[in-house]
Amino acid sequence: MKIVIIGSVAAGTSVAAKARRNDETAEIVVYEAAEDISYSVCGMPYFLGGEVDSIDSLIPRDAKWFKKRFDIDIHTGHHVKEIHPDIKEIEVYNTAEGKGFRDTFDKLVLATGSYSISPAPFHLNSYDNIFHVKSMDNTKAIDRYMAEHDIKHVTIVGSGFIGLEMTEQMKHKGFKVSLVELADQVFPKIDKDMSVHLKKELEAHGIELHLNDKVVDIEGLGRANVLYTDKGAEIQTDLVILAVGVRPNTVLAEKAGIELGETGAVKVDTYMKTSKKDVYAVGDVAESFNRITGKPSYHPLGSTANKMGRIAGDHLTGGKLSFKGTLGTGIFRLFNQTVGYTGLSMEEARKAGFDPIVIHNIKPAHAQYVGGKNLIIKGVADRETGRFLGAQIVGPQGVDKRIDVFATAITFEADAEDLFHLDLAYAPPFSTTKDPVMYTGMVLENARKQLPVMTPEDLTKKQQVGESIQVVDVRSPKQYEKGHVDQAVSMPMPNLRQEAANLNRQQPTVVYCNKGVTSNTAQNVLLNLGFQEVYVLSGGNTNYHYYMDSIK
User: Fold this and answer.
1) In this structure, are residues 5 and 28 in contact, taking their beta carbons and an 8 Å threshold?
2) CATH classification at residue 306
3) Residue 305: what pLDDT?
4) Do residue 79 and residue 68 come from a single domain?
5) pLDDT at 61
6) Which domain holds residue 145?
7) How far apart are the first and last CA of the chain?
8) Are residues 341 and 291 in the same domain?
9) Which residues on adjacent β-strands are paired with residue 80?
10) 92: number of CA atoms within 13 Å, CB side?
11) Does 252 lie in the same domain as 108?
12) How far apart are CA 387 and CA 372, in angstroms?
């Protein structure tokens, strides 16, 4: 059997390695248009920022290594121009020799990846200081340009993964950095009330933000010197990084009549097979599906690409591995903050047919007496069944392990209550006695049943339309005077039982403290005193002001 793989970054090399492990007799051939293979796209910003010393660290293996280890023939500098699935042939162009040829296959794998978007007015061929950060060639070109020119001001367009990582790294190099984002928030993948923490972090590090804006014109001959935005900003710049997203590279697939999915990527089954017999697709070119909803999704990450590659390599050599879908899990660092997310947001859950309940949990990553700092966790569960659906976390410590626990719980369809019963590791330097994961589950389950919560967003909307609702601040008078929720009355917790007589027991009531712990006690007190409808303000006064900042 002859296996031909087109593309050799994360997915393509994973296909080849797994296929060889399963079958020593197969002939495995890989064609790669570029010169480098199996490199870390995710590591590129950290090399450009100087955190990674050598670019060779991002290219752990070359074609010779694969030939020696796996007896796999990888041909770099070979561009596949067309595929013919029905006759099992491909057309290849050898860049170095300047000539083309045909090759045959028994099984074909498309690992052609994705390409970066270049929105108007950006034209990479017209300006020598505008770059993508997608390939090793891009990275080498940026590194070379920075070494050869006097760079003082860098502009990043787009605030996704790469955009924010490049923002951080360019600032670490000592450059002035401007960030332009079309959406009205930083990192649109997460909710706005969580994204506000990233905005604050960027501002704290002197990043010039242009949100809800876009570049409409460029000044400069051969080199972009000034960027003009739709809102009238003029950004002087020496280097521009485009990071506005990627699209699946489906050119070969479309020419061959291979079916695309709803997301625009190649439609595949759980074994990574396409609509054409003996043709597979993996990595950024392939469509995924959401593990919770079962609906098509597009999740171009190296971790997903490696998984898809291994599954395809196994199946085409007789194995039984199958793809189980993704949760859209992601994580990145932004200066002193880490952002993690997995599963469904409240809005995504609602669109998927769930009745979502949302809570905000602000708790230290580990004991505060050994330096623990707060995590801000936004958790989502289904009100009817209790099924845990998703989480978003922002914080300086412990985000990675919590988001992985949440992702694991969602994968095995845990209920919110199950989170509380997890036997998680505890010691003061690593956690709290009631870990933030456990507390998230506990609050979600309470809110689902007899102890409801109300988000700052919902409270604000109710107040704006004039709904009759009483808001009670159970903190100290000093804390109340320093800052409180709009229309709130001060009724400190020690006095609540006595002063509750001044409240209307029939009127919906929202109680809050600083972060949510004391207000839970206050909620129980009022319910026990006969109040009909009592809510805890999700995340307390702290989260309320975070929300107000997010809508300014």
Assistant:
1) yes
2) 3.50.50.60
3) 95
4) yes
5) 81
6) 130-244
7) 62
8) no
9) 92
10) 23
11) yes
12) 29
Q: Residues 120, 122, 126, 131: is their CA dihedral positive or negative?
A: negative
Q: Is residue 304 scored above 80 in pLDDT?
A: yes
Whether residues 404 and 336 fall in one domain? yes
Task: Tell whether 457 is covered by a domain.
Answer: yes
pLDDT band at 114 (very low <50, low <70, confident <90, very high): very high
Query: Which residue, of 432, 448, 464, is where some domain finishes?
Result: 448
Q: What is the average pLDDT across 53-62?
A: 86
CA 536 – CA 521 distance, rounded (Å): 10
Contact 130/142 with Cβ under 8 angstroms? no
Does 62 have pLDDT greater than 90?
Answer: no
Instruction: Kindly state whether residues 210 and 236 are assigned to the same domain.
Output: yes
Distance of CA 531 to the CA centre of its chain: 42
Three-class SS of 181-195: ECCCCCCCCCCHHHH
**Is 434 among the domain residues?**
yes
pLDDT digits (tens, 9 = 90+) for 523-533: 999 999 999 99
Cβ(506)–Cβ(532) under 8 Å? Answer: yes
Query: With left for phi above 0 and alpha for psi between -120 and 50, is residue 420 left, alpha or beta?
Result: alpha
pLDDT digits (tens, 9 = 90+) for 432-476: 999 999 999 999 999 998 899 999 999 999 999 999 999 999 999
Average pLDDT in the chain: 96
- Do 341 and 442 belong to one domain? yes
pLDDT at 64: 85
The residues carrying an active-site annotation are 42
In the DSSP assignment, the letter for residue 22 is: H
CA dihedral 193, 523, 494, 437 (to 10 degrees): -50
Q: Are 349 and 380 in contact (CB under 8 A)?
A: yes
